[in-house]
Write a structure and sequence with these properties.
Elements: H1 17-31, H2 33-47, H3 52-55, H4 65-71, H5 77-88, E1 101-111, E2 114-121, H6 124-142, E3 150-154, E4 161-162, E5 168-171, H7 172-178, H8 180-183, H9 197-200, H10 205-218, E6 223-230, H11 231-254, H12 264-271, H13 278-288, H14 296-300, E7 306-310, H15 319-326, E8 331-332, E9 335-337, E10 342-345, E11 358-360, E12 366-371, E13 396-402, E14 410-422, E15 425-433, E16 436-438, E17 445-446, H16 447-458, E18 466-476, E19 483-492, H17 501-514, H18 517-524, E20 533-537, H19 541-551, H20 568-576, E21 578-583
Parallel strand pairs: 1-5, 3-6, 6-7, 7-8, 19-20
Antiparallel strand pairs: 1-2, 4-5, 9-10, 10-11, 11-15, 12-13, 13-14, 14-15, 16-17, 18-19, 20-21
Family: Belongs to the IAA-amido conjugating enzyme family.
InterPro entries: GH3, GH3_C, GH3_M
Keywords: Ligase
């Protein structure tokens, strides 16, 4: 479609009139960010004024920011959990939201080892779909002619559970892919996938990955961009190809689909795509049969212009692996979102991963910012939270949100640094999830959870009169899938009765059994996390570690063993002292049971 020559945008020339409207919407929202925020809060408080939660703060129908901040406290999940649990148990009264709760979105964060349940309402998907609709108009400013081909995106649904109320609880992207907004989305030539919806909506992870990879191989010359939600997902897709290329090539050569793919809807849609192509099958065999997989992405999909994956925060650890597989194709991060709320998008996606900044879209919810100093919020003297317009470039903040679905002044736990402003809307670099030590995929393990797992595993050592002197850890993403590595220094009081290799293997499993349900699902159902590894180091290793830290300026009086390490010299020191390695001999227990 030709673009009206009178239509323009400060962001750049739009690719089509639909894009022009999207870019204009971004301008309107960001130019009036503070006014939009005031209106959003007014709408949230007006509609939810009679809810049980807000009623107890005696707002007297006030909808202004000053009253709201002075009367409604900043909270975390544990504060809201009793209310959320009542909704999950079937209480249909207006507890948090005046609109009916339509489902729960399960957060990757956990509480007492279980996924957090985030209540949502039906209309929220219209708001989130609006943000999705802005992504390609922005990308089209930087990468032309994406309407000339397709995107190979590895997208999956995950296990869902049902609460006693009958409301479903599932990850936010599973909810989105099953929503009418996704399934009946209008055709957009700039945003066509190689994967039919049936392959994305297949609940079996192997069948879903296999069929999506097969479609991507068949349409390899049409692929202009490749992606997954997280960088770890794209790395896993390449590993899947390494393990399954022979069967995939066989299917393509013969035009018959692997009998392991049993989902009827998947078989039906693949039947329309898969035709015998011995030449393509031989090409795939030639590319995949060798040991060198460097640049495999651009060798098989030569027209790929960029990778669309999240490589910020914990996902930055996958950049070297993606560079190896793709010959350093550009990696673009497009949006910033969570189960609690969708926040914003990257208005300059063509940048280095270290330079990614997200612009907050002020219509998505009401946002406040807690200046970050690693101190917890005091209930006796709560801090003053800042609005969008009050933020300072270069400063770090913890994000606090209020949503249409009823979350009020809720601490998300994300730590952000302000990098600038677009019009009057702040732009942020995502730094990290607060208190997270280890993360491979969607899992987030904090120090308390790690310590609890160590404590549970140490019970197995008691009969051998052995204790754990010190420990530290790191997320090893050189393996595919990545896995947790724990370094242990042990003290055996009776060397003749020290723990056997098998017992230390069981310690690995005991730790995994102690981790939260997100970790265990990644191990069991999603195959996104590998078996946990314990590396036992020589006695005295952690004293050497302290000596090294002190030699670099650390105070001997204030030194504490880091519970997670990533600095190369420290890793090399630890690895040079390893005397035995142990892996979990089985997967931990996990089932998508009904929520109680």
């Amino acid at each position: 479609m030709a673009v009206d020559s009178t239509i323009s945008s400060p962001l750049g020339p739009p690719a089509c009139e639909k894009d022009a409207k999207a870019l204009q919407f971004i301008e309107e929202m960001t130019k009036n960010a503070d006014l939009v925020q005031a209106k959003v809060l007014e709408q949230i408080l007006s509609r939810n004024a009679e809810t049980e939660y807000l009623s107890k703060f005696d707002l007297k129908n006030a909808t202004d920011r000053e009253t709201y901040k002075s009367k409604v406290p900043v909270v975390n999940y544990e504060d809201l959990q009793p209310y959320i649990q009542r909704i999950a148990n079937g209480d249909r009264s207006p507890i948090l939201s005046s609109h009916p709760i339509s489902e729960f979105l399960t957060s990757s964060g956990t509480s007492a080892g279980e996924r957090k349940l985030m209540p949502t309402i039906a209309e929220e998907w219209d708001r989130r779909q609006k943000l999705y609709s802005l992504l390609m108009p922005v990308m089209n400013l930087y990468v032309p002619n994406l309407n000339k081909g397709k995107g190979l995106y590895f997208l999956f649904i995950k296990a869902e559970t049902q609460t006693p109320s009958g409301l479903v609880a599932r990850p936010v992207l599973t909810s989105y892919y099953k929503s009418s907004q996704f399934r009946t989305r209008p055709y957009d030539p700039h945003n066509v996938y190689t994967s039919p919806d049936e392959t994305i909506l297949c609940a079996n992870s192997f069948q879903s990955m296999y069929s999506q990879m097969l479609c991507g191989l068949i349409m390899r010359l049409e692929v202009l961009r490749m992606g997954a939600v997280f960088a770890s997902g794209l790395v896993r897709a390449v590993k899947f190809l390494q393990l399954n290329w022979r069967q995939l090539a066989h299917d393509i050569a013969t035009g018959t689909l692997n009998s392991e793919i049993s989902d009827p809807s998947v078989r039906e849609c693949i039947a329309e795509i898969l035709k015998p192509d011995p030449e393509l099958a031989q090409f795939i065999t030639d590319q995949c049969s060798g040991e060198n997989w460097e640049g495999i992405i651009v060798r098989i999909w030569p027209n790929t212009k960029y990778l669309d994956v999240i490589v910020t925060g914990a996902m930055a650890q996958y950049i070297p692996t993606l560079d190896y597989y793709s010959n350093e194709l550009p990696k673009y991060c497009t949006m910033y979102a969570s189960s609690e709320c969708y926040f914003g998008l990257n208005l300059k996606p063509v940048c280095m991963p270290s330079e990614v900044s997200y612009t907050i879209m002020p219509n998505m919810g009401y946002f406040e910012f807690l200046p970050h100093d690693d101190q917890s919020v005091s209930r006796d003297s709560p801090p003053r939270l800042l609005d969008l317009a009050e933020l300072v470039v270069g400063k770090e903040y913890e994000l606090v949100i209020s949503t249409y679905a009823g979350l009020c002044r809720y601490r998300v736990g994300d730590i952000l640094r302000v990098t600038g402003f677009y019009n009057s809307a702040p732009q942020f670099k995502f730094l990290r999830r607060k208190n997270v030590l280890l993360s491979i995929d969607a899992d987030k393990t904090n120090e308390e959870e790690l310590q609890n797992a160590i404590d549970n595993a140490s019970v197995l050592l008691r009969e051998f009169n052995t204790s754990i002197v010190e420990y530290t850890s790191f997320s090893d993403t050189k393996t595919i899938p990545g896995h947790y590595v724990i370094y242990w220094e042990l003290l055996a009081k009776d060397s003749a009765n020290s723990p056997t290799h098998e017992v230390l293997d069981q310690c690995c499993l005991a730790m995994e059994e102690s981790f939260n349900t997100v970790y265990r699902q990644g191990r069991v159902a999603d195959n996104s996390i590998g078996p946990l590894e314990i590396r036992v180091v020589k006695n005295g290793t952690f004293e050497e570690l302290m000596d090294y830290a002190i030699s670099r300026g650390a105070s001997i009086n204030q030194y504490k063993v880091p519970r997670c390490v990533s600095f190369t010299p420290i890793m090399e020191l630890l690895d040079s002292r390893v005397i035995s390695t142990h892996f979990s001999p089985a997967a931990p227990k996990w089932t998508p049971e009904r929520r109680r």
